[in-house]
Specification:
By secondary structure, this protein is α/β, with parallel strands linked by helices. The chain has eleven helices and 21 strands. A seven-stranded parallel sheet has the order 11-15-10-5-8-9-16, with helices on both faces. Strands 18-17-19-20-21 form a five-stranded parallel sheet. A three-stranded antiparallel sheet has the order 12-13-14. A hairpin with a 2-residue loop joins strand 6 and strand 7. Helix 6 crosses helix 7 and helix 8 runs parallel beside helix 11. The longest helix has 17 residues. The protein is globular and about 60 Å long. The N and C termini lie far apart (about 60 Å).
């Protein structure tokens, strides 16, 4: 999808040339001119143009009949102990809405062992149809086996779009499927929608999280994307919903060359994933040093399912790992309580935590943007206030 300029509307203000991150826009005869080969379709120029002279070119499926044969929005379900992860129900809710707009069906794909009861739960969560691959060899996740099974399903039933969670396994599986099917993949999406042409519009952070790019795949099928956990709300479970369950047996085309000898739980300091945490204690550059994050760990440890997180500045400084980053280029979280300690509140960070139930901000700058989204704010030195807050919580728990 490229951008086009309405030369009659263009007033030659050059605003678009200054905002284009790749220098794809020049001026010709006092009007903007976009180099299609350089343009990355980021959309920055669209929002900058004061007269709305720039817009995406109209796109439509190829006229070779391939796209017209494909229908339905699929969600690849990721399992843990034979249960679907919460993100699966979030994606089914989103896919259900897209399918209704396109006049198609929302479908889920389950690959695993002894999962007979799970299809009914996914139907209750919004799926109209569930494809089931149930076999001993799929008891544990294996990239090659799962890739081959999904590809055989796609070849047999031809979905229009394929959605996967942007988890460790999802990020491993999705590009392999896309490469095998010779289709595109939009990774780590934070929003999705359906165009009038029944194309999925995938939106994700781009250029280091400085802008959002909306991408469509108009030439190949299935359209594919991975979507971050906690971006969408799951639908209310409805046990009265009915749907179709299709059992599928893939051909033995791939040999399993990996044997799992044992499994051990993650017992590290950040054993609870951010997206699963009920309480998050997040720190920014205002914490002062890596050592001061020990207090955040102590705060998080006072709560069941507490986790420590950081802003991008903290990750860039090497104080925390990228897996603990919240924001456009990190993770999107929606805990019950989010402590923002020494975080100024750049828009990139706020976009990843603004949906938290309760936000408590501590910052010595009374005008910090974080206070605009906080439910409770404390102005002061975080390294002075945080120990007092911890002691208060400890005293309350001892009552």
């Amino acid at each position: 999808m490229a951008m086009k300029v309405d030369r009659e509307k263009c007033i030659g203000c050059e605003s678009c040339t200054m905002v284009c991150p790749v220098g794809a826009i020049t001026m010709e005869d006092g009007k903007a001119l976009i180099d299609a080969e350089k343009c990355i379709s980021c959309g920055a120029c669209v929002g900058e143009c004061p007269v709305e002279a720039i817009a995406p070119e109209d796109v439509a499926p190829k006229a070779d009949g391939t796209a017209n044969e494909c229908k339905d929005i699929w969600v690849i379900a990721e399992l843990d102990k034979r249960e679907a992860l919460p993100v699966v129900y979030e994606l089914i809710g989103a896919a259900n809405g897209l399918a209704q707009k396109a006049g198609e069906k929302c479908c889920a794909v389950i690959i695993g062992k002894d999962i007979a009861e799970l299809p009914a739960k996914l139907i209750a969560g919004g799926a109209d149809k569930v494809y089931v691959v149930d076999s001993e060899k799929y008891a544990d996740y294996h990239t090659e086996l799962y890739t081959d099974a999904v590809c055989q399903l796609v070849e047999a039933y031809k979905p229009s779009a394929l959605m996967l969670p942007a988890t460790v396994d999802g990020r491993d599986l999705a590009p392999r499927i896309a490469a095998r099917l010779r289709t595109g993949l939009c990774a780590d999406c934070t929003a999705i929608d359906m165009t009038d042409d029944k194309l999925v519009a995938w939106t994700r952070p781009a250029l280091g999280g400085n802008i959002y790019a909306t991408i469509v795949c108009d030439e190949t099928r299935p359209q594919m994307g991975t979507v971050r956990p906690k971006v969408f709300k799951p639908l209310e479970m409805d046990a009265s919903r009915t749907g179709e369950i299709i059992e599928f047996v893939p051909q033995d085309r791939v040999e399993n060359k990996v044997e799992i000898l044992c499994k051990a739980p993650n017992m590290g300091s950040n054993a609870i994933k951010l997206e699963d945490a009920i309480v998050i204690a997040a720190g920014g550059r205002g914490m002062g040093s890596k050592e001061n994050f020990d207090k955040l760990a102590e705060l998080a440890g006072l709560f069941e399912k507490g986790a420590v997180a950081g802003s991008r500045a903290v990750i860039d400084a090497g104080w925390m790992s990228h897996s603990q980053q919240v924001g456009q280029s990190g993770k999107t979280v929606t805990p019950n309580i989010y402590f923002a300690c020494g975080i100024s509140g750049a828009v990139q960070h706020i976009s990843g935590m603004k949906e938290s139930d309760i936000i408590v901000a501590i910052n010595k700058d009374a005008s910090a943007p974080i206070f605009s989204v906080a439910h409770y704010g404390i102005v002061g030195d975080v390294n002075v206030i945080l120990p007092k807050l911890i002691e208060k919580i400890k005293a309350y728990k001892e009552q």
